[in-house]
Amino acid sequence: MSDVASRPCVLLIAEAANPEWVSVPLIGWSLARALGQIADVHIVTQIRNREAFLRAGLSEGTDFTAIDNEAIARPLWALGKVLRMGEGKGWTALQAVSAAAYPAFERKVWRLFGQDIRAGQYDIVHRITPLSPTIPSPIAKKCAENRVPYVIGPLNGGVPWPVDFKAEQRREREFLAPLRSAYKALPGRRSTLQSARAILAGSRHTGGEIPASFQDKVIYLPENAVDPTRFSQIAAHDSPRMRVAFVGRMVPYKGPDMLIEAALPLLRDARMELDMIGDGPMLEALKAQVKGEDLGNRLRFHGWLPHDVVQDTLAKATLMALPSIREFGGGVVLEAMALGVPPLVVDYAGPGELVREGLGFKVPLSDRAGIVAGFQAELTQLAGKPDLLRKVGLAGRTHVENSFTWAAKARQIGEVYDWVLGRRPDKPKPI
User: What is the DSSP string of 118-175?
Assistant: First the structure.
């Protein structure tokens, strides 16, 4: 165990962590690496991430350990793909399968590191991923029994489908979503929460699902952050007309069709331009949606772009629009803000929490017609206010620099570590 005045020694459990992937694996990797700046960490990850870790320059055995539970994970993952009924669909089904596979991973973690944990070699054990709050942690109780603080999170997920978007829910193959709350009765969930010294909640919704008896451990800490080296440009805001960008998969819950419908009057009148960045099953239907319209080059479908070059197009925008109706985290909101591009979002779930007053613009959650009308009204108003867009974009960029880089996220979690180790008396405040 480290000396009380030194950096804590932390065993980081990041089953999903990969610098070459996106979404949860990239979050797991980025946060684990950032925590290495404020603590002495050893990362435990799944064997599928091993080669990427090595290519990134980490040393196996010293910096990380790769756990091979493929004998269980591979067939369950194959089952999950079948249950999803389509690439990128059926997220709830995939999480159900992951919940079945994960305990075997942690049991191997305990077999490899349990003796060191019992001996006090680690000051803290912190599970970063899985992010899902539906997956219990078998070793949380073991850590508590050995008086080693166990931290879990940020946890996020399970945002309810809006009642007015049942058709989109069916198109996303989210047939299991109504049964999701059954996870609260899973064996090990209460033990995990009871044993954890701190529970990091990535959203207000997820934090609210934690039982009242454990709320004193809950700290609101969104899981997303920005890598300044990936998003280093600054929006020039020099376009002669408002230039709006959509970034995301072309799928029903992201609402790209709603954005195009809302934007059409302004596109026809040459009051705005629209860049649609992303690929997905709706792409051809979106192109058909505007077939026959005389829009010149004011509407551009870029298709899929590599994550590291998205900023080249996004930084040319004066507004980022995301009419998503079920977004857990909303990392693209932070990415736009980091470039100085203000976001326009639906006031629901992750984006609604990240976009605070003065940092962007929000439309109330409603039915499809209400969201289209709300976006159209905002776009119409903002098209004549370039100075406001520039001002809000600058405020958002400053906010991200101060609170939402990975380095800032590590400092915030460092405060949590100090709290669970008794180095500070007060629980850290939310961002």
Answer: HTT--SEEEEEE---TTS--TTHHHHHHTT--EEEEEE---PPPPGGGHHHHHHTT-T
